[in-house]
Amino acid sequence: MSIFTPINQLKLTNVAIVRLKRNGKRFEIACYKNKVISWRNKAEKDIEEVLQTHSVFINVSKGQVAKKEDLIKAFGTHDVTEICKEILMKGDLQVSEKERASQIETMFREIATIVADKCVNPETKRPYTVSLIEKGMKDIHYSVKMNKNTKQQALDVIKQLKENMQLERAQMRLRLSLTGREGRKVKEMLCSKMAHVEKDEWDDGSLEIICLIDPGYLRLFDETVRSLTKGKGSVEVLNLKDVEEGDEKLT
User: Fold this and answer.
1) Tag placement on the chain: N or C end, fewer CB within 10 Å?
2) Would the pTM of this model clear 0.85, i.e. be above it?
């Protein structure tokens, strides 16, 4: 593919076009294939590795660059980098039907893998296999969203699967080491977030708590302990996932 503009001549190969319609106009950017999905999944963080050329077009194939006034009207800025980032995240990746089907299949598998890694059957504490999660996703007719990263979609899938199968986030095991009055305050503030307390013991003015929590609460626990104990208390992750050996079977 060759692109010619009044001020430059660009020859782009292996190009992937991302298109976003705004205010009745279409805006396109030229990217490297396979890099768009990596950017959306946050695997690639350097936009220079994603863009083939640092320009916003109204038609990549014809080399028609968008006018500055059109960019300002549509995006509220003429900062090309920021506009490219928005198009990358919100735009539609233009691919052939065969390529799209392959990408959807790959993303479907990636989403199922993330869910299987994060979740267990709450009764048995055993993880589900990826194939069982894939079956569950098909049963709820989950549709992959090409412009949304797989981690975000995995969280959506978890919420939906909970309505049809026994599923919950695998809990994390923590040890809290606290002292004096601050220890009591921390315990009062965080006890409602503890799914299960395995140990709660005072020894010579120090409190040790071993508990299970939803992984989403880890930051809250860490910040609360550091804040209330002024750095004297600690939070230690004993197990990232509280699971039983073996995979959950389909019955």
Assistant:
1) C
2) no
